């Protein structure tokens, strides 16, 4: 399961970041300020981001060379990694791939991208292996909130899996799709709500339903319908960010917890998921077909309540959207 790595510091870690970090209450797994490995070839941007993280209480290990990132990562085992991504070579993406292999996906990462470079932003979203993307010009509180959201979620998954939150370990996964199940997602939503109430920020819950699933089950049987669910789960897993949690919460319904995602960022997420499903294809008895998702979302603290209430609100939004679309035409699986 997810865990947040923890290692000793490196001698080239910024003294200012360390000194400020020791004054803060937030700490990493060992009780020390959380360590961030920052890889930024631009000296001016490196110093700016380093200063922002230091002021937010992080211990920063700065680098300007991508080829040094993996060896240093293995020495210090940071709590999070920030990688500047830019054309033409996008070296950050290759480094991210290697770091995910080394850490087995246990350390959250984010790409830093120029906010005005929409091509670079799109490239990182489409090719970046679900690593989150933030603007180089992001302010300190927002960057800190995003990093803590990712770290806290991964720690929470490990704690709940070990039974620290519930007294006994939960059965985490849906047996059909391999995604998280509804009880575990609700536990994660509760943890994220408590974290947000304490530290500030926002998160969102997105509900998704596979269009035409009931018709597939009726016409082709349960086995084929379950294949469609597995296919949909894979596509969802390839679309969301590394920090997000995806679960199956009903027969044909999924839900996603998006830490650090305010309401104004949700439309971009929904558009990305819809576009990914529009481009995907599914084999069914010799036919190539494509399906779609009905989507709905709520954001905290715009919507408040217990985890079950937040999930129900997202599902209600989905159903309202579905009814509107059905009024325009029946949901169906489209043949190609």
Brief summary of the model shown:
The chain contains eleven helices and 13 strands. It is an alpha/beta fold. The chain has two domains: 15-150, Response regulator (Rossmann fold); 170-335, 2-Layer Sandwich (Alpha-Beta Plaits), CATH 3.30.70.
Plain-language structure description:
- The protein folds into 2 domains: 15-150, Response regulator (Rossmann fold); 170-335, Alpha-Beta Plaits, CATH 3.30.70.270.
- Helices cover 46% and strands 18% of the residues.
- The chain has 11 helices and 13 strands.
- The strands form 3 sheets. It has a 5-stranded parallel β-sheet with strand order 2-1-3-4-5, sandwiched between helices.
- The relative contact order is 0.10.
Strand pairing plus helix content: what structural class?
A: alpha/beta
Q: State the distance separating the first and last CA atoms.
A: 39 Å
- Assembly type of the shown chains? single chain
What is the N-to-C succession of helices and strands? HEHEHEHEHEHEHEHHEEHEEEHE
CATH level-4 homologous superfamily of the largest domain:
Reverse transcriptase/Diguanylate cyclase domain
Number of helices: 11
The residue ranges in which pLDDT falls below 50 over 5 or more consecutive positions are: 1-27
How many domains? The number is: 2
Main sheet record: 5 strands, parallel
| The CATH topology of the largest domain | Alpha-Beta Plaits
Average predicted local confidence, pLDDT: 80
The amount of beta strand, in percent, is: 15-25%
Gyration radius, rounded: 21 Å
């Amino acid at each position: 399961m997810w865990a947040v790595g923890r290692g000793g510091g490196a001698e080239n870690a910024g003294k200012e970041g360390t000194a400020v970090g020791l004054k803060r209450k937030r700490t990493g797994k060992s009780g020390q300020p959380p360590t961030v490995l920052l890889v930024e070839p631009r000296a001016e941007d490196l110093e700016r981001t380093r200063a922002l993280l230091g002021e937010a209480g992080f211990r920063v290990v700065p680098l300007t060379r991508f080829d040094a990132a993996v060896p240093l990562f293995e020495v210090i085992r940071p709590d999070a990694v920030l990688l500047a991504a830019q054309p033409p070579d996008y070296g950050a993406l290759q480094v991210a791939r290697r770091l995910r292999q080394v850490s087995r996906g246990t350390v959250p990462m984010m790409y830093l991208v120029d906010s005005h470079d929409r091509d670079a932003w799109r490239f990182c979203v489409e090719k970046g292996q679900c690593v989150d993307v933030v603007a180089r010009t992001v302010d300190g509180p927002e960057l800190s909130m995003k990093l803590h959201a990712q770290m806290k979620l991964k720690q929470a998954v490990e704690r709940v899996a070990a039974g620290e939150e519930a007294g006994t370990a939960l059965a985490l996964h849906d047996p059909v799709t391999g995604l998280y199940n509804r009880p575990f997602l609700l536990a994660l939503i509760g943890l994220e709500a408590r974290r947000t109430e304490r530290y500030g920020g926002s998160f969102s819950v997105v509900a998704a339903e596979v269009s035409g699933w009931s018709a597939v089950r009726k016409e082709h049987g349960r086995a084929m319908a379950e294949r469609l669910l597995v296919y949909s789960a894979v596509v969802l897993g390839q679309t969301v960010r590394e920090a997000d949690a995806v679960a199956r919460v009903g027969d044909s319904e999924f839900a996603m917890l998006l830490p650090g995602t305010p309401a104004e960022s949700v439309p971009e997420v929904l558009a990305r998921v819809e576009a990914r499903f529009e481009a995907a294809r599914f084999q069914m008895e010799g036919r190539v077909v494509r399906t779609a998702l009905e989507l709905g979302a709520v954001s905290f603290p715009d919507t408040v309540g217990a985890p079950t209430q937040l999930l129900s609100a997202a599902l209600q939004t989905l159903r309202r959207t579905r009814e509107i679309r059905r009024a325009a035409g029946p949901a169906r699986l489209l043949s190609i």
